[in-house]
Amino acid sequence: MSAPSSRGFRVRALPGIGEIRPGDDLVAVIADAVAAAGEPLADGDILVVTSKIVSKAEGRIIRATDRERAITDETVRVVATRPTADGGITRIVENRLGMVAAAAGVDASNTDDGTVLLLPEDPDASARLIAAGLRERTGKLLGVLLSDTLGRPWREGQTDVAIGAAGVHVFDDLRGTTDAAGKPLLVTLPCVADELAAAGDLVKGKASGCPVAVVSGLGRLVGDLDLPGARSIVRPAERDLFRLGTDEAIAHGMAAGRSAGYSAGRAIGFAEGFAAALSAAERERVRV
């Protein structure tokens, strides 16, 4: 998508959404909250919905004692592991949705004692159901983002990102346009879905009981329900330059080097061995 940038937008929390239980109709819950708030939705509004209430409505709730097993079941690939102060292990993994997250996104916050939440089965599909339902109920052209909280490589703290999207352009593609100095933009592809998820979190908060935010003034980003969802944000493996944690990358590379014929019994210099390991690891990465 390529369009002039908006000069401003508004983000507001939507109050009045109570505790969500399995089987609850989120379209009805959100629509009722909008009516009670007295400010109707308008064409071009984007709703940022905390994924936890979607997980609850979909019954993605398990016992806390099953958390470690659930993390394993949700894991596609281990990216990094680190011991914790209490003797446990933090696992940073790629989960079945393609997200790289601590504990595969299995979360114990904002849920009943003794339970944890799994991420929605298909966040993009969940977003489409909510968007379609709200469009039908209100007659307005609306977009929906499902948000979740993630850490970031190289930076402290966390931020919300979009894990599901419907009716929203997740990227604002500026490639092929020019900057203010007339220079061509070759790689500029802002992920507006993540930016809006983070903006929504600023007004929703983590413990305010307001799991939905409404973004107004960015109707240029709203479109058909068959637009690519948040899964399209996940970088393909062949373009991922930082696919493993440092310790895991070294171990993987050394193992690949040994399988390529550099055994421990053969005396080689460090530089030669390291180069061989990197070369073998690159071959493995390409095969993946």
From TrEMBL:
<protein>
    <recommendedName>
        <fullName>Coenzyme F420:L-glutamate ligase-like domain-containing protein</fullName>
    </recommendedName>
</protein>
<dbReference type="Pfam" id="PF01996">
    <property type="entry name" value="F420_ligase"/>
</dbReference>
<keyword id="KW-0460">Magnesium</keyword>
<dbReference type="InterPro" id="IPR002847">
    <property type="entry name" value="F420-0_gamma-glut_ligase-dom"/>
</dbReference>
<dbReference type="InterPro" id="IPR008225">
    <property type="entry name" value="F420-0_g-glutamyl_ligase"/>
</dbReference>
<keyword id="KW-0436">Ligase</keyword>
<keyword id="KW-0630">Potassium</keyword>
<keyword id="KW-0547">Nucleotide-binding</keyword>
<keyword id="KW-0479">Metal-binding</keyword>
<keyword id="KW-0464">Manganese</keyword>
<feature type="domain" description="Coenzyme F420:L-glutamate ligase-like">
    <location>
        <begin position="17"/>
        <end position="217"/>
    </location>
</feature>
<keyword id="KW-0342">GTP-binding</keyword>
